[in-house]
């Protein structure tokens, strides 16, 4: 195993780098000697990283609500970097609401932003990583999915669909990239202290169903009591250093190890009952 990731990778592109896991991933890569292009919808939110890593961190304005413009921003950044070695598609957001009671346009926009447009960036990014101009150097495409793909969150149907779709895309690309210099990582984080719950859209409040209030309280507590984002970055670092495609579950021990083990040898009905009990739905 290389002592530093910069022995393998020179440059990286990280979406959603202004907060949470995206910032932790960018900081980890910068600490490993990798030059990073990080994105945010508002590039001024990246000022702290620019100040701490002058000349090594580059701010990119990128809004996933506009897929074509987002792809152009990635392409321009790739040219400035003389080719990316690592691409991390991390940006996204949550929506908490009852599926039928919420206007479908809300779910459609989330699907377009987090699944369709993320897949578009993965498509453009993979073309960059597979370019003959890179000379066959090691490369990694990292699409951030979620343990929600295996253990769906109640009243977050859109998020669950998006992350399950990203996981399916990752598994497909692993087969396509077999034997090539490009590894594909299907990273499935659990709950981290990122204030993700603070940014979740909550249409239709106040909620009329007590179950929604109970589920939200359990979700918020779960996020606030999770590990620090640096824990996720350390897990990603180990996966990048291994240079093997695969699924990377990261989070507290129960979520990342015990729960998947029980799900594998249990039943879907059992998993749903456990989830319902945890979120006080039964």
Per DSSP, what share of the residues sits in E-state strands of 2 or more residues?
Answer: 5-15%
* Helix and strand composition category: alpha/beta
What spatial order of strands do you see in the largest sheet?
3-2-1-4-5-6-7
User: Under the CATH scheme, which architecture would be assigned?
Assistant: 3-Layer(aba) Sandwich
> Under the CATH scheme, which class?
Alpha Beta
From the N-terminal CA to the C-terminal CA, the straight-line distance is 47 Å
Largest sheet: 7 strands, parallel
Q: Report low-confidence residues grouped into runs of 5 or more.
A: none
Task: Reconstruct the topology from this structure.
Elements (H helix, E strand, L loop, with lengths): L10 E4 L5 H12 L3 E6 L6 H6 L4 E5 L5 H14 L5 E4 L14 H26 L9 E6 L12 H20 L5 E8 L6 H4 L10 H15 L4 H14 L3 E5 L2 H13 L2 H11 L4
Parallel strand pairs: 1-2, 1-4, 2-3, 4-5, 5-6, 6-7
Characterize this entry briefly.
48% of the residues lie in helices and 13% in strands. It has ten helices and seven strands.
Q: What does this 3D model show about the protein?
A:
This protein has 282 residues and is α/β, with parallel strands linked by helices. It has one domain: Rossmann fold (3-Layer(aba) Sandwich), CATH 3.40.50.720. Helices cover 48% and strands 13% of the residues. The chain has ten helices and seven strands. The protein has helices at 20-31, 47-52, 67-80, 104-129, 157-176, 196-199, 210-224, 229-242, 253-265, 268-278; strands spanning 11-14, 35-40, 57-61, 86-89, 139-144, 182-189, 246-250. The chain has a seven-stranded parallel β-sheet, sandwiched between helices. The longest helix is centred in the middle third of the chain and has 26 residues, at 104-129. The N and C termini lie far apart (47 Å). The relative contact order is 0.13. The model has no long low-confidence stretch (mean pLDDT 94).
């Amino acid at each position: 195993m290389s002592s530093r990731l910069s022995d393998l990778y020179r440059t990286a592109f990280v979406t959603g780098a202004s907060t949470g896991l995206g910032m932790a991933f960018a900081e980890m890569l910068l600490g490993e000697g990798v030059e990073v292009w990080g994105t945010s919808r508002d590039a001024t939110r990246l000022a702290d990283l620019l100040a701490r890593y002058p000349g090594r961190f580059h701010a990119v304005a990128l809004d996933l609500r506009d897929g074509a413009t987002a792809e152009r921003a990635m392409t321009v950044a790739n040219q400035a970097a003389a080719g990316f070695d690592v691409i991390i598609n991390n940006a996204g957001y949550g929506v908490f609401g009852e599926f039928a009671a919420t206007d479908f346009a809300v779910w459609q926009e989330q699907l377009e932003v987090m699944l369709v447009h993320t897949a578009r960036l993965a498509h453009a990014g993979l073309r960059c990583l597979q370019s003959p101009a890179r000379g066959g150097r090691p490369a990694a495409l990292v699409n951030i999915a979620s343990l929600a793909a295996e253990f769906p969150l109640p009243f977050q149907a859109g998020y669950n669909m998006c992350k399950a779709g990203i996981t399916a895309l990752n598994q497909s690309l692993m087969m396509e990239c077999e034997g090539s210099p490009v590894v594909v990582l299907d990273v499935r984080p659990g709950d981290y202290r990122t204030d993700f719950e603070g940014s979740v859209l909550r249409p239709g409040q106040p909620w009329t169903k007590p179950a929604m209030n109970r589920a939200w309280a359990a979700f918020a507590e779960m996020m606030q009591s999770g590990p620090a984002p640096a824990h996720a970055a350390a897990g990603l670092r180990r996966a990048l250093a291994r240079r093997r495609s695969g699924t990377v579950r990261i989070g507290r021990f129960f979520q990342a190890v015990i729960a998947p083990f029980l799900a594998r040898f249990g039943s879907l009905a059992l998993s749903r009952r456990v989830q319902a009990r945890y979120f006080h739905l039964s």
